Each structure stands twice: as C-alpha cells, then as structure tokens.
## 1
Amino acid sequence: MAGKIFLNGKWVDHDQAVVSVFDHGLLYGDGVFEGIRSYGGKIFRLTEHVERLYDSAKAIRLTIPYDPRQMSDHIKSSVRTNGLKDGYIRAVVTRGAGDLGLDPDKCQTPTVFIIADSITLYPKQFYDEGLSIVTVPTRRNVPEALNPRIKSLNYLNNILAKIEGKLSGCVEALMLTDSGFVCECTGDNIFCLRQNVLLTPPVYLGALKGITRGVVMDLAAARGLTVQETPFTRHELFTADEVFLTGTAAEIVPVTRLDGRVIGSGRPGPQTRALTAAFRDLVAQEGEDAYAV
Ligand code: PXG
C-alpha cells in the first residue's frame, strides 16, 4: 500500500518502516499503544487517546520523547499525509532497542511510530444480527500482576482468549476476572441492560478504561438510562434485555447470544440501536480536524 508511516520523527514508506530485532517492544512487549479512529478526517477523542497513551507510558516508566501536543500533531499529520478520511490510527511507543536482557535502562531511545490506514469495517451482519460469543477459560490479567488499564504491547492474555473464542467459532470472547466476575472481551468493553439500568464492569476489576465505553456511558445517561459501574456475573448477561460491546474498532456491537443462551429477544435491542444512532451522530460532529492546519 502507498502511504507513509511516521517512524522516529521521519516519514517512511511501508516497506521501509522497520524496527530493530533488539527492540524491547518486540522482545518483551515492553511498550504502549493506542488505536484511534478518524471519521471524515476528524479524529475522534484524540485528546483522550493521547492522554491514555501518556498515562500508560507513565505507569511503565517510559518517557515519550514528545510532549502530548507534539504527539497529537504527529497523529494528525499521519492522517493528512495518507489522505485519509475514515481511518484507523495506531500510535505505538516502545522501550526501544536494548540488549538481550530485561533491563529497560539498557534501552537508550524509545521507538515511536504511527500507522494511519484505511479502516477495515466489521461485517454489517454483526450489527444487524448481533454477535454470538462465548466465555473463554483464560481469565483477564489480575490488575495486581499487570494492570489492564495500561494499554501495553503485551496482549498475549487477550490473544489467548481470542484463540479460544475462535476455536468455538466466535469473533469475540468474554473474559472473566480471576474470581469469576464479568470483565471485558478481548478488544472490547461489555455492557448489559435490564429495565433501563445499564451495567458495565468497573475498571478496578481489570478492564481497560475504554474511550468508547466512556462515550456510551455519557450517551446512555443523556437518554435517561441509569448507568452503573458495578461487578456482575454471567447470570446478569444471560438474563439481560440487551448486551452490547464497545471499542474504537467495533464501535457499538450488539451481542445476541452468550454461551448458547439467547439474550433478550435474540435481536439487537432498541436501546442498543438508539445508542448506536447517537454514537454515529456524535462521531460525525465531534473530533479534531486533521486537515485544519
Ligand atoms: N478492552 C480492550 C482489552 C481493548 O484492547 C477496548 C477494551 C476498547 O477501548 P476503546 O478505548 O477503543 O474504546 C480495547 C481497545 C482491534 C483492536 O484490532 C481493538 C482494540 C485495541 C486494539 C486493536 O480489534 N480495542
């Protein structure tokens, strides 16, 4: 594909965009990232994504060699340079090249790259009919070991769950906490609705503090729903009126089956559809214009 990648301050072609085999991002998953969307050339919640990137970096004692403003400008430039309107942006900061040992202090310079590409949309069928998902055996990382609030390059926990989900024929998989509460899916947060009460697991259980999650909580409250961040079990999902997932890539996707149980009517519910419509309106209005320079 044509287009340019931002790599350590330079714009390089796709096939020239390479990092060292000694990069600790590769050797140890030692780094952080963000996945961001642009809609019509406007980057949705850019400031929040950049803030989360810096929070993740701070939590692992990684100093990003730009200030947040500069990083935001590089992200906008990536969209512009690649002539994107609707796009997906991946911003990555690794510990950089070091030696064959864990010691992060051996890594002199962080590696920073930004990929801006066209978005691969999920099949329309997911949204029209809802997903069928399963609960997988792999539990979400315990926050005391590796806090899922850090959006780190170490995604094996999620990938193992994804593999297990796919083995059951599902594109997403439900992950529980070590004590069996509903946590999140491999790349999406989860919500369940019953009689105008919308529940989502609190992030202290070990879920990512999703930016789409936050947006949907606000939209739901504005629609008069009672929104609660509270621990719950699979039972609440089995007996919900509606269940849906949120994420930058997926946006809002209905779930109509979990572990062989039909959820609600078995069709995407009215609140899920209304929230999706409100979300679409919002992303079309809001966002930092990558082309306004
Ligand atoms: N939980 C996890 C574990 C995630 O990785 C979300 C929730 C949703 O968060 P946002 O801020 O996006 O609303 C994510 C992020 C992909 C892909 O290709 C998905 C994510 C990240 C990277 C890639 O599907 N989801």
## 2
Amino acid sequence: MPNSPAKRGHRSMAVVLVALALFLAVLILRRMVMSEEPMSWNPDSMRAKMVETQLIYRGIKDERVLSAMRTIPRHRFVPQRIEHRAYEDNALPIGEEQTISQPYIVAYMTEALKLSGGEKVLEVGTGSGYEAAVLAEMGCEVYTIEIIPELTQTARRQLDEAGYGQVHTRTGDGYFGWPEEAPFDAIIITAAPQKVPVALLDQLKPGGRMIVPVGPEYGVQNLLRLTKTQEGRVATDTLIPVVFVPMTGEIEGKK
Ligand code: SAM
C-alpha cells in the first residue's frame, strides 16, 4: 500500500535527524582525534581537584604549601603540547630527558622543609621552575640552580610569565651550591645523588633543613631530611622512598 504524505514526511524528518546526529558525531570525534586536549579542559578546577585528591587526601597539611599549589598554574610549567596533563598524579617529561616532579612529591618535600615564609632557600635542580614558583609563592627568597642551560632558559621564561620574576636562577652544577648567597635556611635537592653532597651542608645555617633523595641511578632512593643543629652537627631523618632522575656533574665522580 502506498505511504500517506504524513508518513513520508515523518520518514524524511527522521532521515534528516539521523544525518544531523551523524554529522555532529563526526565533528566531535574529529575534534577529539585532532586535539590531544580533553574537551572539558578547565585548569582551575583541575588544580583544585589535584590539591583535594592528591595532596590533602594523602595527608599534606601545611596550608602554605596547599595554598601555593592551589594558586600556581602548573600547566604553564610543562611543554604546551602536554599542558592538559599537568594535573595528573605523576611526573611529566619537560624535555632534555628531565621531568617535573609529581604534585604530591613537590608538596611532600616542600612541607618537609618546615617553612614559615621569608626563608632564604636554595634549590638544586630547577627543571621546569615549578618547585621554585611554589617556594616563591610561599614567600621565600629563592635561589635555584640548573645544570642544563636550555632548562634554565625555559624555567626563567615560565617564572617571569607566571609572575615569579623575583626568583634567582642560574645555570651551573648545584653540587657547589651558591656560595655568594650562603648560608641558606633550607636547601632542596630535586635530583638524586648517590650520596649526600656534604659540600652543600656547609651552606646551610645552623637550624637549617636540607631535603635530598639519595640512592641509585634510576632505582628507588630514600628521601632524607638533614637538619643542622645549632652546634653544627647533622641529624638525619629517613622519610619516604622516591624515584628521581640522577644528580649529574661533580657528584658523579664522588661515588
Ligand atoms: N624541581 C624541578 C621542577 O619543579 O620541575 C624538577 C627537577 S627534575 C626532577 C631534576 C633536575 O635536576 C633536572 O632538570 C636536572 O637537569 C637537574 N640536575 C641534575 N643534576 C644537577 C646538578 N648537579 N646541578 C643542578 N641541576 C641538576
């Protein structure tokens, strides 16, 4: 039996709707394939979630650390092509075979330095510049050394663009510290030497703290906190197991 004009009209409408749905599906799929960015990219909410689920949930309590990591646009410190991954619960590559550390490890190490703001802090291993930004946001006077010149340059640019122009950067071997600016209230080493770089302890004030991952190259290391007493002795706390890229330069000859 021939279809009525009303039925034919409904069928054409259905065909148009299916075609439209297919067209939209292709557009969405194309966008997902062409761009690595998730469609719901919202750095502010991702950062808030990172602080909640990766830091507070795991026991980070220092409000200064939490507030700094809530504030700093971590995605500005990773290469642009992976900025949408900046709030993941892991380290990420930043070029030159180096990494920006996992957010939790940044928070843990910074909290372990027991800072109250205003301290003079030396960082060895600038990398992306993110840890230096965290320390600066907490009100510290930051000196950071990176052995790979290309990374110092990128970190310098990111720090300036993110509003942390006051951070002092330098290319060099952090093994020798920053003698002209010593002594420091705190020293944080974000690459792993196989033994404690004792030369740096000389640049620590009495009462100062040094955080350093010590252990084998590309293996599991121990995160140590060395505290210099008022009398100049050093007390060591072994904190947690960690995995860091190796500290290179002079220290390699001191195995
Ligand atoms: N703190 C960094 C951040 O926030 O992105 C992450 C640092 S990355 C895990 C370790 C860095 O230490 C690398 O950039 C590496 O080139 C640097 N490094 C290794 N040995 C060094 C040395 N002797 N002096 C200074 N930097 C060093």
## 3
Amino acid sequence: MVYQRYVLIGFMGAGKTSVGQALSQRLDFNFVDLDQLILEQSSVNSIGEIFTNLGEERFRELETEAANSLVDAEEIIIATCGGAISRRETMMALINSPEVCVIFLKTGFNTSKARLLGDNSRPLFADEDSARKLWEKRQAVYQGWATRTVDTDELSIAQVVAAILREAADEA
Ligand code: S3P
C-alpha cells in the first residue's frame, strides 16, 4: 500500500515527533507536529501557557482546529498530540484521506517517564499518578484508531522508522 498520509499517535514520550521527522526525511514527505502547529496558529509560546491561561478544553478545541487545517494535505507525516484521540472530530479530521496509515507508537508508562525525565513542558505529566491513570485509560483508545502498532520500548528511532516502512512494503 502506498500511503499519502501517516498519522502518528501515542502517549507523551512515545517519540511521535522524532519518528515523524525521520520518516518524513525517508519518504520526502512534509512533516507537521500538531503541538507546534497549535502554537503557531494561536501565537502562544508554550503548551503550558495554553493549559494555564485557557484550560484543557480550549486546548482540545485548538487541537481540532489545527487538525482541520490539515484535511487537504497529502504526502504528509503528522505527529499528533498525545491527547488527539480525546476528541473524535480531531481524529476524523486527521484520518480524512483514502490513503492514510495511523501508526500507534506504543510505549510502556515507565519508558515514557524515563524519556521525559527533566522535561517540564507537559502539563499532563506533572503528576505521575494521574499521568499513569491517563496512560492506562488511553491504551485501548490508541489501539482502536491504529492501522498499525509499533512497540517502541526497545527500539531506536531508526528502528521504529524501519518497522513502519517494512510493514507498508509488506502490504504492497
Ligand atoms: C498531551 C500531549 C502533549 C501536548 C499536551 C497534551 C496529552 O503532546 O499536546 O501537553 O494530552 O497527552 P505530546 O504527546 O507531543 O507530548
């Protein structure tokens, strides 16, 4: 199968941005990071600022708006925000393409935690217990949207990219 659009979903720390950038170089596709797009479209400096000043609900609306602005884009890799799966309309906008592949980059909670050590940019990872509960609650939802799942715990970025490309080639 030749995909025109790859949508990377998964929890914070799954590697969506790093894998997305590397995959876009391999395929010569455009790359968009949804968090970054939200910041650009709302002229705000950080996601934390949106959560603090406007609240999570408004952030989710901005996430939907950002996803909607990409509906016509082809030859694109989209690294979603970890919570893009919170709203069906966000996901529907992201997968609105006949040749879309949704990749769930799966990570154990402890892997996410280790990868985000010392990174204070994620409001929903500020408290470990609630982050763990969120991780548990979301696993089945990520799985439900996924065309493919790659377990990233033991893999480098390059290995994850190779796994994604291998699976797409196997389907051809
Ligand atoms: C969030 C994930 C973050 C960011 C925001 C909320 C979430 O993005 O959008 O802090 O709800 O999981 P990353 O998944 O890129 O860290």
